[in-house]
Amino acid sequence: MHDDRDLVEARLKRVLNERIRPALHPDSVPLEVAVWHAPDEPVPVAEGLAATPEPIAVGDAWGAPWGTSWFTVTGTVPERWAGRTVEALLDLGFDEDMPGFQCEGLVYLPDGTPVKGLNPRNQWVRVGAPVKGGERVRLHVEAASNPVILGRHPFQPTRLGDKETAGNDPLYRLTRMDLAVFDETVWQLVMDLEVLGELMHELPVDGARRYEVLRAVNRALDAVDLQDVNGTAAAARAELTGVLSAPAVPSAHRVSAVGHAHIDSAWLWPLRETVRKVARTASNMTALLEDEPDFVFAMSQAQQWAWIKEHRPEVWAKVTKAVASGRFVPAGGMWVESDTNMPGSEAMARQFVHGKRFFIDEFGVDNEEVWLPDTFGFAAGLPQIIKAAGSKRLLTQKISWSQTNTFPHHTFLWEGLDGTRIFTHFPPVDTYNCSMTGGELAHAARNFKDKGVARHSLAPTGWGDGGGGTTREMVAKAARVRDLEGSPAVTWETPAAFFAKAEAEYPHPPVWAGELYLELHRATLTSQAKTKQGNRRSEHLLREAELWAATAAVRAGAPYPYAQLDRIWKTVLLHQFHDILPGSSIAWVHREARRTYELVAEELNAVIDTAQRALAGDASGGTLVFNGAPHARRGVPAGGAARPEAGVRTSAGERDGGGYVLDNGLLRVEVDARGLIVSVHDVAADRETVAPGQVAGLLQLHPDFPNKWDAWDVDEFYRNTGTDLTEADEVSLADGSVRVRRSFGSSSVTQVFTLSGRRLDIDTEVDWHETEKFLKLAFPLDVHADRYASESQYGHVFRATHTNTSWEAAKFEACNHRFVHVEEPGWGVALVNDSTYGHDVTRTAGDAGTTTTVRVSLLRAPRFPDPETDQGVHRFRHALVPGATIGDAVREGYVVNLPERRVPGDAEVAPLVTVDDDAVVVTAVKLADDESGDVIVRFHESRGGRARATLTPGFPVAQVVETDLLERPTAEPRRHDGPVPLTLRPFELVTLRLKRA
Ligand SMILES: [Zn+2]
């Protein structure tokens, strides 16, 4: 037979587009439309419903950037439609190609009952099925005129990203506001033809199945009368029943579809808009669940659930009802889908504490799955934290975005830095916005790396970010591919049901050890420096606030601010969302974040001050130093207060050949006339720290214009060119420190070098007015090292200093917490920081072997999505610690992040708990969240070795019990009879609950 495949495929495309789809709504009448524009920010629903609207017509412009407009649509169902299915079609001016990134609406009945969301791919509201004819229709639409930030020409700088700079020009034009007859049979025909057409394109062209489908499609098109599609759709469908009822082959890939709407908690819209995006999507999904008995929808991020509960009680009522049915499922167990590279140990733990607790308290659901489809890489500390939270499985697809290397597994065990293994799945569909196309399903099956030993994968299905979630079309398609020859077999399922099957079929999956590094979005470790500093400061202030408030409660009977700390923790956790802390949101989000962090600091400083004054005794009795760090400092015990011992004195003088010398008997530092560090001599070890012929404390400025994703990405070629900032405006000596001023481009910088014990402190203040530049601070070290350590959650990870393989080369920018450490056997150097995360470590070959250069990333200046990113004054604190072990690096990292606090008083404060081995680091001392008054102590082995230590409570204890992160017992309580002996394996994390006697 002649091959007419191309001809039939082209026929299908044209007839579907030009004749069959237009017949979905064969008759329509216009609705009357009126509108009230809220003067500024969104108003409560009752106020929007009660407002007096003005007439507006289809074709009229509406919607200033970030505005809210309340549309009222009214009409009457024509009598001639009696018995038909009728829908309101409300097109606010949508672009169907950008679901989630433009205007949206939520439809209400006049009594305030939410009906469903309006989105580019979801513009219908069911009026009646069937209608009687003559019904009056009145609907209200709360429409948000959110501007398109990421448009058809992406990554262009725009002022639309902040209400303060966005202007008032209307952005949208009302396109259609009609009542229309919905022809269900035509819609089903469209679904049949889409599924078969998409399937056909994925089938082998030399296989019989492809031609069976092709012939059936051709017969169906023959059966369509192009002048009477509605009258002939049923006959056309009849031609397709044969090919649609052929069952899947036994080896077909199995897809667990999970209804999903990935909603960024803030990104190209402010936090307040996410509250509404979530309400719209949840309204859509509760409505779809009512219509579709097989459908299952999962929603993550306890914060988003809490927003619905607080702000939209009518939507919350529908959600809780749907949860009770078991088909609207809380997914994961974190407060938000946070970044996991940058959050500190305790914050990462609290993401799970607050996320899991919300789902447990509200619904009795204790999930074992972690749901992080979109997070930019996964730190090696995470598996232990997941397990300590009582979970055991992880889902993400983000690693498929890596630019260089293809990850070898889709289902595997992920082993963290302490050896904990977590069952992990990467959906091979490679998207968290699956729309159930044949192309996506075929890609999942083909792409799945574990074929032959496993058969199941998960597909998060639905439009995210305000696209409205899963559509009825996706559900209709899934029904057709439930058991269809040539297609993977699709079933709606909960994440837990998927994981149970995946684990059962694959008892010995392969293992991936260490971090899951995303080979993309590396600049998220640096962009929006003040957001990152706000996070780092808040994390350490929270540590201090809990420690001192708990100490004051136990020692002085002071009230413990449970509710206040709970609220502040949730604020800080929210800002760790994967587009806020990474710096990839619009200007509005970061402007608000900076203010929020200021308020957090004010509140926490007040909590700390109140607690310390309650402990310090007579304020006229001199000055006490409070040490909130986990190590004793200058004679002040960890977690206690005392009068400190004096520190070593620094002598400062001029250097031969220009510049200055600082010497405190431990370190001798030479700064040359250009203000560059030419020598850091470790006196005790008689060893030079700076690599021969090089200079440390060197600022390096690189051009930084990535190919796309400006705030997210730094591309490797940035290193090809750069300028060393060696010209100084001023080099001077002041108060025993060397002060250097430089100017470059439109910016200036002041650096102050100070000796402090074994540390060379480097304070850097930059007045930054560059665009598309990357500022690094470099320390070439005379250390021969194949690898270096970077602090992560509850431990550290090693990375290579060389680029032997593409995997190592791809890690050209990586994350640290408080320190980076390099060493040769017996001698190492730490570089600690108070707020930077991005860094790179390279090796340099010279005549005398290789040396190691550590560079920290200070500032970037991308212009998208915030055109003014990082403009202004920034202050960073770093310290170089020659002769440092990992233990020293841990300790000094705390020192620069937890400055001592001087408080008037005379009563020395003994710590609530003391641990007699510095390898064991206490990360939290607090009162139990259940308000029982029990003291919670969390600690971990910090050096990667074994530790035997004794924890001594500084108060009478009746009982000690080991708990999980949620403070739930995991072992039998033991009667307490004195100090608690501890045995810890490398990086082991332990939480103890101490019941007070
Ligand atoms: Zn996201």
Q: Short description, anyone?
A:
This protein is α+β, with helices and mostly antiparallel strands. It is globular and about 95 Å long.
Overview of the molecule:
With 997 residues, the protein is of the alpha+beta class. The chain is built from 19 helices and 53 strands. The strands form twelve sheets. Strands 32-33-34-35-44-41-40-37-38 form a nine-stranded antiparallel beta sheet, with helices on one face. Strands 3-2-5-10-7-8 form a six-stranded antiparallel beta sheet. The chain has a six-stranded antiparallel beta sheet with strand order 31-30-36-43-42-39, with no helix packed on it. A hairpin with a 7-residue loop joins strand 47 and strand 48 (935-941). Helix 3 (184-202) runs antiparallel to helix 4 (208-223), helix 3 (184-202) packs across helix 13 (472-480) and helix 10 packs across helix 16. The longest helix has 30 residues, at 587-616. The chain starts with a helix and ends with a strand. The mean pLDDT is 97. Bound molecules: zinc ion. Zinc ion (ZN) binds at residues 262, 264, 374, 578.
Q: How is the topology of this model organized?
A:
Blueprint: H1 5-20, E1 28-30, E2 32-37, H2 45-50, E3 54-55, E4 61-62, E5 67-76, E6 85-91, E7 104-108, E8 114-118, E9 124-128, E10 136-145, E11 172-173, E12 176-182, H3 184-202, H4 208-223, H5 229-238, H6 241-244, E13 254-259, H7 271-291, E14 297-299, H8 302-311, H9 313-324, E15 328-330, H10 345-363, E16 369-371, H11 382-388, E17 393-395, E18 411-415, E19 421-425, H12 438-447, E20 456-461, H13 472-480, E21 489-492, H14 495-505, E22 511-513, H15 529-556, H16 562-574, H17 587-616, E23 623-627, E24 640-642, E25 651-654, E26 660-663, E27 667-671, E28 677-682, E29 687-688, E30 698-703, E31 723-725, E32 730-734, E33 737-744, E34 747-756, E35 759-768, E36 773-781, E37 787-792, E38 795-800, H18 806-809, E39 814-815, E40 819-824, E41 827-833, E42 838-846, E43 849-860, E44 872-882, H19 886-897, E45 901-904, E46 913-915, E47 920-927, E48 935-941, E49 947-953, E50 957-963, E51 974-975, E52 980-984, E53 989-996
Helix pairs in contact: 1-3, 1-4, 3-4, 3-5, 3-13, 4-5, 7-8, 7-9, 8-9, 10-16, 15-16, 15-17, 16-17
The structure holds zinc ion (ZN).
